[in-house]
Design goal:
about 220 residues, 11-stranded antiparallel beta sheet, mainly beta
């Protein structure tokens, strides 16, 4: 399912995607800039043969494996899916607030689109919350088969998602429900998803930071 191949004499992580799973870091990380490049392969598997190709980077992952869908840890997700790269999804009991615009779909169900000037919305898939997802602000993905650059900035209990150099989401007040208490989340493990699609990653880097770059000051 997970293997290392060579492309132009450089290591590339290949995820064949047959089953739902994750490649998990041994260590927890906080206050960092995570970067990687990814591209889609050709193969898809059940139950998503007819669906979008899907993967994801889970960060600030906490607790036990299998807490979400009996597969992944409770975490914040940088969604990697055809047409949806950079979306934020709260998995399990790790969640946060996103400045966003509230919209209604054709069935009258609310959904949220990241807007740096929007109202901060608590997002979690649980009773009392309208949604656990914030859609990216705009589409910046390259065509299938081309490499894309993804970035996550994490500082204290705030994070920023970038796709090909563009800010597409921002999560604030990240927190975790544990044993009846709500505690700030500032660090955790990182998981790379296998989710029924062939996908490739390369040039993964984690760089410590002590502040956000000045280019984000206007967000």
């Amino acid at each position: 399912m997970f293997s290392i191949i060579k492309e132009n004499n450089k290591n590339v992580l290949k995820i064949s995607g047959e089953i739902y799973g994750g490649l998990t870091s041994k260590n927890e990380y906080g206050n960092y800039h995570f970067t990687t490049q990814f591209k889609w392969g050709e193969k898809k598997w059940e139950p998503r043969i007819k669906g979008k190709r899907d993967s994801g980077i889970l960060y600030h992952a906490k607790g036990v494996h299998g807490a979400f869908w009996n597969t992944w840890m409770a975490s914040l997700e940088f969604q990697i899916q055809e047409g949806d790269c950079g979306d934020f999804i709260a998995l399990g009991d790790v969640y946060g607030d996103v400045p966003a615009d509230r919209k209604l779909n054709k069935k009258g169900k609310p959904f949220f689109i990241y807007n740096p000037k929007g109202k901060e919305i608590p997002l979690k898939y649980a009773t009392g919350f309208e949604s656990g997802r914030s859609t990216k602000s705009s589409l910046y993905e390259n065509p299938n088969g081309a490499w894309n650059t993804l970035e996550i900035y994490c500082l204290d209990n705030e994070s920023i998602h970038l796709v090909n150099g563009h800010v597409v989401n921002r999560i604030k007040n990240t927190r975790y429900n544990l044993a009846g208490k709500t505690i700030p989340v500032t660090r955790g493990k990182i998981q790379i998803q296998s989710e029924a699609a062939e996908v490739y990653y390369k040039n993964m880097k984690i760089t410590p930071i002590t502040k956000f770059p000045s280019k984000f000051s206007k967000l």
